[in-house]
Design brief:
With about 475 residues, the protein is mainly alpha-helical. Helix content is about 65%, strand content about 5%. It has 21 helices and 10 strands. The protein has a two-stranded parallel sheet with strand order 1-2. Strands 3-8 form a two-stranded antiparallel sheet. Helix 1 (about 25-50) packs across helix 10 and helix 4 (about 100-130) crosses helix 13.
């Protein structure tokens, strides 16, 4: 399947190992392990953030990667890790579905599965109609806005859920991650989030022994009603209240076996939940298109014909992973960095990485250790991750020179972002509400196309219809 590159040991200056080539198998195992480490931080952090099983997420990321490589016919080397784009929608679902419960887990993965199906359909449309169809519906001004509101729309999660659990550990974790990102330019810098998380975990363990338990609110724990009595299900009238607890609780780690099948669960489909995660599809389309173009630039190959397949493959992979309780997937930029550093673009390395990830998923003790990550540590990590997601939206605007002097671009974008950051809740009727990221996305997308259509009918004095419409295209 892969032809050996040269002697299988060395690369001459300027040479690269193409997707259909390989070096010696021991070397390929090493490259595969590098890809596992590169994807590992975000792939298990984001399931934690979404309240999903990180063991299942890591294992199914390997399955998703193999499926992706098969669908793109090995032309687009990529690893599929956990997507951050669904976090806001997942939090909104849990807020109305009972918090961190098995029933809410099923509703979350059911909504993600449907979003994966929509993404797969978008991939088919791109494949048969061309990538320009996506650019018409989601021009850069809209895509950038959606990516930005997905990131910034999660600010309340950091402020209300994680940071308050242990604000000093959150602050130190954030600062450590800052320093690692800046001081280490190579591989260590690329896994700075993972390094920060480990450092925060260690600090929390030390503080438990030096200063004792901390008194704070843990979501889903110590549930009390207005009278202070214990109550069973977290909700409007039954809330988590502060109590003394250790930052790190390793009881579940001690009880978990070394080998076993992850805790799979079936999805539960609710239309109201699906609407809350659909905005993430726009971000995933943009991510996949950007990923394919980046791979094409690095390898010097024409991979544009595979853009539709890549989007379809990501959608299919998300459907497969969420069908058993796993996390949504996306193509990982972290692994592009590994390829750029090593000049090895062989898909053999990705198949090896996928197998390693599957083996990790068969270790419940590892999953329990990951799940024991303190909330304060997650606060220090997620404040960076969410901010970086938001700024990727600004990057899309800058690279495409979006003109915000044009009100067609500025007005719906600004309104949508504020609605998401609020997060603002809008009661539609019959108990159905739009809020946060979903509400902001609808306003950005619908508002942009509405104003663009109006601006075409009412051109500015002295300007042609074509030039006015061109401004609105971003």
């Amino acid at each position: 399947m892969w032809t050996k590159h040269g002697d299988g040991k060395h690369l001459a200056p300027g040479e690269v190992v193409r997707p259909d080539e390989r070096l010696s198998w021991p070397r390929m195992v090493g490259f595969g392990a590098q890809h596992v480490i590169a994807m590992f931080g975000a792939t298990f952090v984001f399931p934690l953030v979404m309240g999903l099983d990180p063991n299942v997420a890591v294992m199914m990321s390997g399955v998703a990667t193999i499926l992706f490589l098969l669908i793109v016919n090995g032309k687009v080397p990529s690893y599929l890790g956990t997507s951050a784009s669904f976090v806001g929608g997942v939090f909104a679902i849990r807020a109305v579905a009972g918090g961190d419960t098995a029933g809410a887990d099923a509703i979350v993965t059911g909504a993600i599965l449907v979003a994966g199906f929509v993404l797969a359909l978008a991939g088919l449309a791109i494949h048969f109609l061309g990538v320009q169809i996506i650019h018409r519906v989601f021009p850069p001004v809209v895509t950038g806005a959606v990516v930005m509101l997905i990131g910034f729309g999660l600010a309340y999660v950091v402020a209300d859920v994680y940071w308050t659990q242990d604000h000093w550990v959150a602050l130190v974790t954030m600062l450590v991650t800052f320093l690692v990102i800046v001081l280490f330019k190579g591989f260590v810098g690329r896994i700075a989030v993972l390094v920060g998380l480990v450092a925060g975990f260690a600090l929390s363990w030390v503080l438990d022994r030096l200063s004792g338990p901390i008194t704070s609110v843990l979501p889903g724990a110590n549930l009390r009603d207005a009278a202070g009595n214990l109550c069973p299900v977290e909700g409007t009238y039954c809330v988590a209240t502060a109590f003394p607890h250790d930052r790190v609780n390793l009881d579940a780690v001690a009880e978990a076996p070394w080998f076993g099948i992850p805790d799979f669960h079936a999805p539960d489909f609710r239309a109201s939940a699906v609407l809350l995660v659909l905005p993430a599809v726009i971000a995933l389309i943009a991510e996949n298109i950007g990923h394919v173009k980046a791979v094409g630039e690095m390898t010097g190959a024409d991979v544009d014909p595979y853009v539709g397949r890549a989007v379809l493959a990501d959608g299919a992979a998300t459907m497969v992973t969420s069908a058993v309780g796993g996390s949504p997937t996306t193509t990982y930029a972290e692994n592009i960095g590994v390829m750029a550093a090593t000049k090895v673009y062989s898909t053999a390395a990705y198949y090896i990485a996928a197998v390693i990830a599957i083996l990790f998923g068969l270790c419940p003790k590892f999953g329990a250790l990951v799940a024991a990550t303190p909330g304060g540590v997650l606060g220090g990590v997620t404040v960076i991750l969410y901010g970086m997601i938001g700024l990727l939206g600004a990057k899309i605007w800058i690279e495409n020179r979006v003109d915000f002097a044009d009100p067609v671009n500025m007005v719906p974008t600004g309104a949508g972002i504020i609605l998401a950051v609020g997060p603002v809740t809008h009661l539609v009727g019959g108990g159905f509400t739009l809020e946060g990221i979903a509400f902001g996305t609808i306003v950005v997308l619908g508002g942009y196309h509405l104003l663009r259509a109006i601006s075409r009918r009412t051109p500015e004095p002295g300007a042609s219809v074509e030039s006015t419409a061109g401004k609105g295209a971003g």
